[in-house]
Amino acid sequence: MNGDSHSLVQAVRGPLMLITLGSLIAMDYFAVYSFWRTWPILIIIFGVLKLLERVASPVPVPPDSRPPGGNAI
User: Fold this and answer.
1) Which of 18, 32, 37, 55 has a Cα at 20 to 30 A from 63?
2) Do 32 and 42 contact (CB within 8 A), yes or no?
3) What DSSP designation does 3 have?
4) Which residues neighbour 28 within 8 Å (Cβ) at sequence distance 6 or greater?
5) Which residues of 50-65 are buried (b: 16+ CB within 10 A; e: fewer)?
6) Long-range pairs, 39-45, Cβ under 8 A, ≥24
């Protein structure tokens, strides 16, 4: 994954959370499942999206360990 994937995950996080929340409220309204039993799904979705964001972020380049202006001994 690259930087474009990172920004994609950030861009869809809000809409996915709202869609999930709306689905859970609709299930509560139609008496499929009550909201108090399904709200942890929001935390799970948020965690998965944060994990995807972390995986998609570019790997930082470590600083050069050699001293400036010379060769390491």
Assistant:
1) 55
2) no
3) H
4) 34, 35, 38
5) eebbeebbeeeeeeee
6) 42/17, 45/16, 45/17, 45/20
Q: At what angle do helices 3-29 and 40-56 cross, to 10 degrees?
A: 170
Q: What pLDDT digit, counting tens, does each position of 14-46 carry?
A: 999 999 999 999 999 998 889 999 999 999 999
Output the pTM of the full model.
0.68
Query: CA dist 28 to 15, 39, 40, 73, Å?
Result: 20, 10, 14, 68
Q: Which residues contact 58 (CB under 8 A, 6 or more apart)?
A: 2, 3, 6
